[in-house]
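seq:
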Amino acid sequence: MKQQSQKIVLLEIIWWLAWTCLQVFALNFAGFDWKISITDAVISNFILGLEGYSIILILKVYQPDKSKLYYLLIWSAALAGIYILLVEFALGIAFIGNITYLQFLDNTILLRFGVSFLMLAFISVLGWIWFYLQTQQRDESRKSDMERLSREAELYSLRQQLQPHFLFNSLNSINALIGTEPARARTMVQQLSDFFRGTLRRQDSHRVTLTEELDQLKLYLDIEKVRFGHRLQTEVFMDEKSIGMMIPSLLLQPVVENAIKFGLYDVTGDVLISIQAEVMGDDLRICVENPYDPETTSPSKGVGFGLSSIERRLYLLYGRNDLLTTENKNSTFKTCIHIPQTK
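struct:
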């Protein structure tokens, strides 16, 4: 913005010099010598330049709205009148006794008024447009900042809402283990500490590598395996190309948590949660599968707060509503996330 202002000031100076030179040649062509021509052009255009600058100062403080743009014409006409008075006074003193020039000055008053009015009106309109565009740009920037802060606050809120019930369940499990298996309770406390320490480290990271996300997910699964014992089994498949790809931090935990909730709670026996990551084109696709009992669980119920929050996060980050899909087939519920790899 500062560079643009400097460029505009430079253009105004060039324009003022060009117009002054043009007036010098016009007066010389009219029969006056170079001294008179230069003096007339410099004095009159100096006054005109000051009035043009005063308009810019006024517009910095006050810009009339679109319904009052006629104010610009009123200002221009008033300043043009003042310009004529100052020019007559200054040039009258500079060329006192030069009857020929003073008669020429009187004969060109209306012409000078018309030219100065057009010049000042032109400066007024351009100045108004310039400050109007600056105001619009500031408003857009402020609106963009507000939207960004609001989006970041919502993303933070969504991440925070996913943790409390997991913490409560873990604490309940620890409480149950303290009396019967204190060693396992201590292990679970350490795992829970490591998990939340890793979660806090990732609060300010919008994106991490898939490997980092899976490392954090492993801490979560280790805690859940203490709760559910041998019933919970997991497997992770990912191709080599996907290892270094980026993913929004803490994205997979609520998906896996949803799979555990609707997989283990209503199914007897061991349950296998499968996590698959693959590259599709230039982007990353991650799918989580879990079994469910069709007699006790409706697949549509599997889309709980966890998945709806993930869908919302993906929309806030990428502006798309088609990045999370679910399907159920042969008593298996499958959740897939498509993660664009923005440059």
